[in-house]
């Protein structure tokens, strides 16, 4: 029986070195996959090979990490994962649990070959839809979701420059945290971070990721995945997991306890990350994805960051409409209010079984 990867190699043979061959990532390919990602202006942290291991081991989802090869060199990548749920449908996405994704290549031929591979796989799997989480629009004829924006801003060369670049009201919140005697600390284990993060998402009424997921992220990405906590009088009040990619820092998972509000713990936490990034000579602070009309959106704008729309594009297969699985959907209001009333321990125990299906 011909495998999927063999079929695509037959469909896209190398002709005079011009047409790319489509292959599936193997452990032996990870180093050169990541070398391509690090050197490609089209790629992001979420195109790294390690996401295959994380998604498979943390959530049990099947993955297809395709790459295009020409002349023995990788010239494009497309990481994909399948999420199949009775509650939330059946999707093939690039990439679930990540804010960015899609095809990363500068080659039109590689893009075409990778796209055709993904679309053929979507048909084979009989999914509801194929999703690309693009930074820039790629398929104007596909249905899209105009829900998310990203916030990115230059990190200035001097610490005081970055402080003064923060709008006055937000800067006052940062200084409130400094006056309260807050102190940041880098961590090797997830316990302090997880306590603050899980408390925060429970308060918002959303399911928490598993401890295993965060441990895997730290294990797989090593020094490029950093944990930081903020303490007040010795107690952890906020926790943050950040990713590092080239000259960028991406605060990705964070949260705080009720005590954090009184001492501006979250404001201080993000300032500390920015300050530390400035010390390291990094150039870009990627504040990540938010939904328009939410508190997180307003919080990031208050820092002086301007929103840039993200282009989440969908090729519909069995589905008739773009999925709408997000807390702003009115049909989830009852679920959110019920979740908030659950004991924290119970929410942390059952949350990972729900969130794995959301992607």
Automatic annotation (TrEMBL):
Question: What are the residue boundaries of the BioF2-like acetyltransferase domain, all occurrences included?
Answer: 169-301
Q: Which InterPro entries match?
A: Acyl_CoA_acyltransferase, BioF2-like_GNAT_dom, PEP-CTERM_FemAB-rel, PG_Glycine_Bridge_Synth
| Full protein name | FemAB family PEP-CTERM system-associated protein
């Amino acid at each position: 029986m011909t495998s999927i990867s063999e079929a695509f190699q037959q469909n896209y043979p190398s002709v005079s070195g011009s047409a790319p061959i489509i292959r599936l990532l193997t452990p032996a390919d990870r180093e050169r996959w990541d070398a391509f990602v690090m050197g490609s202006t089209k790629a992001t942290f979420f195109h790294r090979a390690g996401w295959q291991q994380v998604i498979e081991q943390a959530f049990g989802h099947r993955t297809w990490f395709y790459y295009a090869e020409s002349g023995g060199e990788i010239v494009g990548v497309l990481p994909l994962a399948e999420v199949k749920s009775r509650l939330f449908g059946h999707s093939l996405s690039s990439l679930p649990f990540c804010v960015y994704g899609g095809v990363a290549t500068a080659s039109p031929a590689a893009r075409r070959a990778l796209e055709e591979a993904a679309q053929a796989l979507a048909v084979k799997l009989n999914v509801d839809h194929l999703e690309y989480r693009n930074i820039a629009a790629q398929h104007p004829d596909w249905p899209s979701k105009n829900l998310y924006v990203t916030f990115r801003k230059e990190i200035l060369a001097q610490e005081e420059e970055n402080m003064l670049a923060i709008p006055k009201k937000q800067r006052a919140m940062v200084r409130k945290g400094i006056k309260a005697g807050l102190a940041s600390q880098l961590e090797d284990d997830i316990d302090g971070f997880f306590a603050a993060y899980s408390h925060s998402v429970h308060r918002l009424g959303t399911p928490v990721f598993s401890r295993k997921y965060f441990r895997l992220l730290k294990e797989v990405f090593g020094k490029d995945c950093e944990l930081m906590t903020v303490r007040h009088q010795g107690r952890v009040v906020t926790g943050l997991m950040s990713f590092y990619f080239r000259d960028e820092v991406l605060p990705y998972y964070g949260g705080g306890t009720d005590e954090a509000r009184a001492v501006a713990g979250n404001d201080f936490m993000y300032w500390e990350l920015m300050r530390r990034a400035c010390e390291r000579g990094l150039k870009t602070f990627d504040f990540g994805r938010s939904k328009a009309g939410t508190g997180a959106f307003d919080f990031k704008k208050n820092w002086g960051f301007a929103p840039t729309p993200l282009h989440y594009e969908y090729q519909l297969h069995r589905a008739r409409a773009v999925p709408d699985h997000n807390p702003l959907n009115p049909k989830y209001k009852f679920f959110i209010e019920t979740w908030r009333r659950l004991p924290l321990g119970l929410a942390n125990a059952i949350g990972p079984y729900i969130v794995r299906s959301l992607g």
